[in-house]
Amino acid sequence: MSNIKIMVENMTCTGCGECYSVCPHGYIFMKQGKLGYPVPHIEKCEDCGICLEKCPYSNFLDPDDEEGAAT
Ligand code: SF4
Ligand code: SF4
Questions:
Q1: What is the rounded CA–CA span in Å between residue 45 and residue 33?
Q2: Total domains present in the chain
Q3: pLDDT of residue 63
Q4: What is the CATH number of the domain that holds 15?
Q5: 71 lies in a domain?
Q6: Which tens digit of pLDDT belongs to each residue from 20-52?
Q7: Are the beta carbons of 53 and 4 closer than 8 angstroms?
Q8: Ligand 2 within 6 A of 16 CB?
């Protein structure tokens, strides 16, 4: 998985909205999440990886998680 779904799943997302701004296809929308603020949701994705690359917090991810490996 190379999109920011993993940020939401890991509760690492701060809701900053950067990913929403950069998806070249407009596939990301912000929706109220469990954490009490809007977080990104994706229904369709070309897997280009731009949103995850531009997320200012994605460098805090465990690299194994980013590969989709079980922990
Ligand atoms: S750029 Fe990262 S921290 Fe900001 S809303 Fe998107 S996933 Fe969350
Ligand atoms: S991986 Fe690319 S197409 Fe998919 S949501 Fe992120 S920026 Fe958009």
A1: 20
A2: 1
A3: 67
A4: 3.30.70.20
A5: no
A6: 999 999 999 999 988 899 999 998 999 999 999
A7: no
A8: no
Q: Is residue 70 part of a domain?
A: no
Report the percent of the chain where pLDDT is more than 70. Answer: 85
Pocket lining: 6 vs ligand 2, CB cutoff 6 Å: no
Ligand 1 centroid to 71 CA: how many Å?
Answer: 22
Domain annotation covers residue 68 = no
Give dist(CA 44, CA 36) in Å, integer.
24
pLDDT on residue 70:
38
CA of 65 to the centre of ligand 1 (A): 16
Of 20, 26, 8, 25, nearest to 51 (Cα)?
20
63 CA distance to ligand 2 middle (Å):
19
Residue 30 belongs to domain spanning: 5-61
